[in-house]
C-alpha cells in the first residue's frame, strides 16, 4: 500500500500513510485532538491529520500546551496554534502549572497529559494523537535499559494506550524524526525548535545528541531501528504473559479478609518470570502501586524459601505468609 502520487513528496506520503492507518476504523463524525508543540514532529502530524481526517469524515482539532517554563513560551504556543488553524484544524492553547515532583521532564509531561485529557473530554474527542517518532521510541528504550527498569520499561511506548479514559494514538512510532522535518519542509511549514531539546542537563537530550550518535558511529547504522524492534518484540511478549497471568490468577488468587492472597505452592511452581509478574500484577491491581525487582524477589522468597520470616513492607501494602498462602493487605 502506498500514498505516492505524482508530485507528492515521499516524506509527506510516509507521514500521511502512518496517520491514515491510525485513524482508519474511527467512527465517522468523531473528533481527534493533535497534541501540538510546534516542533517538526507534531507539525508534520498535524498537517497529515488535517488531510487524512477530512477524507475519513473525522473532525480534527489541536491543543498546544504552554508550560510556561521559558521566556517566549506564550508566543511560541500562539504561533503553533496559528499554524494549526492555517492547516484547517480547530486550534486552542492552554496554560498549565508545572510542579516539581519527579523532576522537570516528568512534571511537565504529567501536566501536559492532564491538560490533553481534560481538553479531549471537554470536546468529546475519541482520541488524542501525539507526534512521538521512532527516534523517541529508541531513546525511551535506551533510557529504560540504562536505569535497569526491566522489561516493562523496555517495551517503550505503545502505538495505542488510554489516557484518563481517552484513547491515545502514536501514529509516527515507525517514522524517523528526519522524515517529519522533511515533511514540514516539503509542505512549507516552519517548525519551532524548543531550546529545551538542546539542554544537556536533560537525560533524553544527552541520549539523543551524544549516546545514540556514538552507538551509531561505533556499532554501525540502524541502532534506533533495532531498539524500536526490541520494544515491539518485548511488547508482544508482555501481551502473551498478560494472557497467561489472567488465566493463572483465576486459579491461585483469592480475596482475603484483609486484602488478597496467593497460593504459595502454586506461585513457587511457576517459572520465575511468570511468578514475578503475578506478584507485581496483584499489587498493582489491588493497591495501585509498583514494585521494584528487589521488592518482588523478597515476596517470592515467602513462597520459594520460606523459613518463618516476618511480614514485608511494600509500597501501599504488606505481604506475609499465612499457612500455605501469601497474603497482601493494606498498610495502616
From TrEMBL:
<keyword id="KW-0175">Coiled coil</keyword>
<dbReference type="InterPro" id="IPR015262">
    <property type="entry name" value="tRNA_Ile_lys_synt_subst-bd"/>
</dbReference>
<keyword id="KW-0963">Cytoplasm</keyword>
<keyword id="KW-0819">tRNA processing</keyword>
<feature type="binding site">
    <location>
        <begin position="37"/>
        <end position="42"/>
    </location>
    <ligand>
        <name>ATP</name>
    </ligand>
</feature>
<dbReference type="InterPro" id="IPR014729">
    <property type="entry name" value="Rossmann-like_a/b/a_fold"/>
</dbReference>
<dbReference type="Pfam" id="PF01171">
    <property type="entry name" value="ATP_bind_3"/>
</dbReference>
<feature type="coiled-coil region">
    <location>
        <begin position="224"/>
        <end position="251"/>
    </location>
</feature>
<keyword id="KW-0436">Ligase</keyword>
<dbReference type="InterPro" id="IPR011063">
    <property type="entry name" value="TilS/TtcA_N"/>
</dbReference>
<dbReference type="GO" id="GO:0032267">
    <property type="term" value="F:tRNA(Ile)-lysidine synthase activity"/>
</dbReference>
<keyword id="KW-0067">ATP-binding</keyword>
<keyword id="KW-0547">Nucleotide-binding</keyword>
<comment type="similarity">
    <text>Belongs to the tRNA(Ile)-lysidine synthase family.</text>
</comment>
<feature type="domain" description="tRNA(Ile)-lysidine/2-thiocytidine synthase N-terminal">
    <location>
        <begin position="32"/>
        <end position="209"/>
    </location>
</feature>
<dbReference type="InterPro" id="IPR012795">
    <property type="entry name" value="tRNA_Ile_lys_synt_N"/>
</dbReference>
<dbReference type="InterPro" id="IPR012094">
    <property type="entry name" value="tRNA_Ile_lys_synt"/>
</dbReference>
<dbReference type="Pfam" id="PF09179">
    <property type="entry name" value="TilS"/>
</dbReference>
<comment type="function">
    <text>Ligates lysine onto the cytidine present at position 34 of the AUA codon-specific tRNA(Ile) that contains the anticodon CAU, in an ATP-dependent manner. Cytidine is converted to lysidine, thus changing the amino acid specificity of the tRNA from methionine to isoleucine.</text>
</comment>
<protein>
    <recommendedName>
        <fullName>tRNA(Ile)-lysidine synthase</fullName>
        <ecNumber>6.3.4.19</ecNumber>
    </recommendedName>
</protein>
<feature type="domain" description="tRNA(Ile)-lysidine synthase substrate-binding">
    <location>
        <begin position="264"/>
        <end position="326"/>
    </location>
</feature>
Amino acid at each position: 500500500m502506498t500514498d505516492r502520487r505524482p508530485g507528492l513528496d515521499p516524506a509527506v506520503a510516509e507521514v500521511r500513510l502512518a496517520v491514515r492507518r491510525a485513524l482508519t476504523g474511527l467512527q465517522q463524525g468523531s473528533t481527534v485532538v493533535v497534541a501540538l508543540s510546534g516542533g517538526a514532529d507534531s507539525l508534520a502530524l498535524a498537517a497529515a491529520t488535517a488531510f487524512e481526517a477530512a477524507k475519513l469524515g473525522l473532525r480534527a482539532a489541536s491543543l498546544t500546551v504552554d508550560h510556561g517554563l521559558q521566556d517566549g513560551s506564550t508566543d511560541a504556543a500562539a504561533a503553533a496554534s496559528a499554524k494549526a488553524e492555517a492547516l484547517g484544524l480547530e486550534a486552542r492553547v492552554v496554560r498549565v502549572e508545572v510542579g516539581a515532583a519527579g523532576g522537570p521532564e516528568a512534571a511537565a509531561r504529567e501536566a501536559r497529559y492532564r491538560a490533553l485529557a481534560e481538553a479531549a473530554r471537554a470536546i468529546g474527542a475519541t482520541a488524542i494523537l501525539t507526534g512521538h517518532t521512532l527516534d523517541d521510541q529508541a531513546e525511551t528504550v535506551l533510557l529504560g535499559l540504562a536505569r535497569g527498569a526491566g522489561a516493562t520499561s523496555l517495551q517503550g511506548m505503545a502505538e495505542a494506550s488510554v489516557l484518563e479514559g481517552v484513547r491515545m494514538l502514536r501514529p509516527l512510532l515507525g517514522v524517523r524524526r528526519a522524515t517529519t522535518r522533511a515533511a514540514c519542509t516539503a509542505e512549507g511549514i516552519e517548525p519551532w525548535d524548543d531550546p529545551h531539546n538542546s539542554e544537556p542537563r536533560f537525560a533524553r537530550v544527552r541520549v539523543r545528541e551524544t549516546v545514540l550518535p556514538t552507538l551509531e558511529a561505533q556499532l554501525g547504522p540502524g541502532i534506533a531501528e533495532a531498539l524500536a524492534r526490541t520494544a515491539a518484540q518485548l511488547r508482544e511478549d508482555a501481551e502473551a504473559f498478560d494472557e497467561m497471568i489472567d488465566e493463572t490468577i483465576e486459579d491461585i488468587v483469592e480475596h482475603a479478609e484483609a486484602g488478597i492472597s496467593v497460593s504459595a505452592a502454586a506461585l513457587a511452581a511457576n517459572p520465575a518470570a511468570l511468578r514475578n509478574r503475578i506478584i507485581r500484577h496483584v499489587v498493582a491491581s489491588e493497591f495501585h502501586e509498583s514494585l521494584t525487582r528487589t521488592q518482588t524477589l523478597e515476596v517470592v522468597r515467602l513462597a520459594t524459601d520460606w523459613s518463618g520470616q516476618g511480614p514485608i513492607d511494600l509500597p501501599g501494602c504488606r505481604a506475609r505468609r499465612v499457612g500455605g498462602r501469601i497474603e497482601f493487605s493494606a498498610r495502616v
